[in-house]
Write a structure and sequence with these properties.
The chain is of the alpha+beta class. The chain has a single domain (3-115), classed as Aminopeptidase. Helix content is 28%, strand content 26%. It contains 4 helices and 5 strands. The chain has a 5-stranded mixed β-sheet with strand order 1-2-3-4-5. Helix 3 links the parallel strand 4 and strand 5.
Length: 134
């Protein structure tokens, strides 16, 4: 069937829920909030096999200087097919004239992002305040 890539911010809640829960992200329990989050993103690139959402990346940006990669997730059944790399490439192409593209990655993900052209900041430490909705 082949994988198609789209630039859309409109998603069905159940599509987002299925994708986010496939990678065990707790935000998948809030599909209606994810729909709003995608609509409010600067950019969203998604990967589809037929009608099935199998991956996406969303970017928050200030419109001129800095873009933040917020989510990048691929359904585990589709890992190893170059989908994540293609989605990062779409982000890099769109934001090529920005001063910087920023992301926060877990240690186990650093190799993937380095292969996509990102460099680890030697003197930088990510910080988080996380709360769960009730």
């Amino acid at each position: 069937m082949g994988i198609k890539y789209k630039t859309t911010k409109k998603f069905a809640p159940e599509d987002l829920q299925e994708l986010f829960l496939s990678v065990e992200w707790s935000s998948g329990h809030y599909p209606d909030k994810l729909v709003i989050a995608m609509k409010n993103s600067g950019s969203v690139f998604s990967a589809w096999e037929g009608d099935k959402l199998i991956g996406l990346v969303n970017v928050l940006d200030d419109g001129v200087m800095t873009a933040y990669v917020h989510y990048l997730l691929i359904n585990p059944n589709y890992h190893g097919q170059g989908i994540g790399k293609k989605l990062v490439s779409l982000v890099s192409d769109k934001y090529k004239d920005y001063l910087r593209i920023v992301l926060i990655a877990y240690d186990k993900e650093i190799g993937f992002y380095e292969n996509c052209g990102f460099e680890k900041g030697e003197d930088k430490t990510p910080m988080f305040i996380t709360s769960l909705w009730t």
